[in-house]
Amino acid sequence: MTSTARAAQDADSGQATTGTDPDQNGSRRGRWAVAFRRHRTDLAIGLFFLLLAGWLTAGMWPDPGARVLSLNPEDQALYEWFLAVDSRVLHGDFALLSDRLNAPTGVNLMANTTVIALGMLFAPITLVAGAPATFALLVAGNLAGTAIAWYLLFTRMLGVRRLAAALGAGLCGFGPGMLSQSNSHLHMTAQWLVPVLVWLVVRLVRAADPQGRPDRPGVDRRRVVTSAVGLAATVSVQVFIGEEVLFLTAVAMIILSLAYAAANRSLARRVLPGFLAGMLLAVALAGAVLAYPLWFQFAGPQSVPNGMFSPYYFYADLASWPAISPLSIAGSAGAAQLTTGAAEYNTFLGWPLLLATVVAAGWLIRRPIVIACVAAGLGMAALSLGPTVVVNREPTDLSGPYALLLGVPVVDGALPMRFALALLPLIATVLVLAVDRGLAADRTQVRILVPVAAALALLPIFPTQMATAARPPVPEFITAGHWRDCVEPGGVLVPVPLPTPKEPWPMRWAAAADASFSLPEGFFIGPYAAGGKASMGTYKQPTSQLLTDVTTSGAVPAVSAEQREQAQRDVRFWKASCVVLSDDAVHAESLRITLEALFGPSTRIADAWTWRVG
């Protein structure tokens, strides 16, 4: 007898005994109790993923504002600024061109990885607890959320056993590439909508199959339409979270779908008309929603015509695949030389997992889904190698498939090495199916050996805690609101030295003030390279360069009348109201003397010197 039946009997008994209407609250509690008993294993696995994410990011707690991810602090400053700007939606600011950086020109938010949807969703937390708290929550939440989403997909769509699903979901959410990208790349780790996209595509395929419902033959038009609408909505949201993840998902799904169709041609022929109709509807709906944002991204103010990063630099070294990430328990620091930095250990799967995947795929190779996963995995792995195959940092004479994408607009802007991120769910799917088959075997040895072998293959890449360090506090001049004595909300404040891509620290001032004032220059992608091509940041004004030189050398220059006149022109160009030098600036005394030579006597406010210039 099921627990549901027992609950129903208990309710009937109570009604007969009392002779009154059933207690609605008690009935609700009963349903919750039944649901809890039915899903307690799922809840326990979800809780484990949350605790694991919390443990991995423990260095950021309990005071995120005082801690920083030490392997990529520059990008953390950038994303905290993004989150602060995104939170301005609660103030009615929906502009895709932000005037809060690169004053007076602004920054195209769509051309940058601004995680707009996440920033808007977490805006209340940002305004109450600050951007660092939101950042820390998202770092942990993206890891756990991605794992939970894949676990639900594996159990609900594939119908596998929970142990198998948990192992695969753990790889999807906490694999080497995910942990590596968690070092400040929020747009790459927010992958919890990817399983939703996969589920909607599968749902569309099943609805388009005329033989999908034995009781009612024919295409399920209602489910085709609802699946298409769901796809359009999910794609639209993902664009405002991370377009690169959406692009990688689309490429992997195309390869996987073609391979599955080749392996199951009868199904492909049956579903093709209805599936294409649903996809056309999804594209039309998403196109209507995204037409203006995408136009703004590629043709609007401050848009860029090309990708920012060279594929000849961001490639996957072939030797990195059997290596183990330095961020894993079995990793070594020496493996770091095989990639560009700690945020790009995307291919470091380790030889035990690769070997287990090959064995599992060979065992299940007759299944169309396994054939499709193998084809998609090989395709994405090949694309990750970049235009030229490199082995142990030595270029070869072999061209990678990515060379075919060179010169293709938009597409060639994708970083080759990140194609490897798609292998986590593809490998996980093969392992999940293998472990599930092993658990269903008649022989006890197989039921034990297969899951143990999978766990041992995953053990070497189990993640270590993320490296963090203390960071200097934001000046009291900002945190106590003294900046309002110097610049009106929405005005331009010039921090000294000005923020740059390599030294973006003054952007934390703006983030701490909820982006209530604007900054000149800064860390962003804009059209400032030769010919209007993409650049990281903008060119410096002469006064900004002078102050940077003082910061670097500590030497006080002899300021000429021409430089004083140039300083006035520069602050007028920035439309600045106030120049601010905090006590903790490098070579603060040299900078103060230089600024007084440029702008005259300073005014001391809290822990900063200020100059009213507008």
Summary of the model, kept short:
Helices cover 53% and strands 7% of the residues. It has 614 residues and is an alpha+beta fold. This is Glycosyl transferase.
SSE blueprint:
Layout (H helix, E strand, L loop, with lengths): L2 H16 L5 H33 L10 E3 L3 H14 L10 E2 L8 E2 L7 H6 L1 H7 L1 H28 L3 H13 L1 H6 L4 H4 L4 H15 L12 H19 L3 H21 L1 H35 L51 H13 L4 H17 L3 E4 L2 E6 L23 H17 L4 H15 L9 E3 L5 H4 L12 E5 L10 H6 L12 E2 L8 E2 L5 H12 L7 H14 L1 E7 L5 H12 L3 E3 L2 E5 L2
Parallel strand pairs: 7-10
Antiparallel strand pairs: 1-6, 2-3, 4-5, 8-9, 10-12, 11-12
Helix pairs in contact: 1-2, 2-6, 2-7, 3-6, 5-6, 6-7, 6-10, 7-16, 7-17, 10-11, 10-13, 11-13, 12-13, 12-15, 14-16, 14-17, 15-16, 16-17
Task: Describe the protein in words.
This protein is an alpha+beta fold. The chain has helices at about 5-20, 25-55, 75-85, 115-120, 125-130, 130-160, 160-175, 175-180, 185-190, 195-210, 220-240, 245-265, 265-300, 350-365, 370-385, 425-440, 445-460, 475-480, 505-510, 540-555, 560-575, 590-600, and strands at about 65-70, 95-100, 105-110, 390, 395-400, 470, 490-495, 525, 535, 575-580, 605, 610. The strands form 5 sheets. The chain has a 4-stranded mixed β-sheet with strand order 7-10-12-11. The chain has a two-stranded antiparallel ribbon with strand order 1-6. A hairpin with a 2-residue loop joins strand 4 (about 390) and strand 5. The termini are far apart. Keywords: Membrane, Transmembrane, Transmembrane helix.
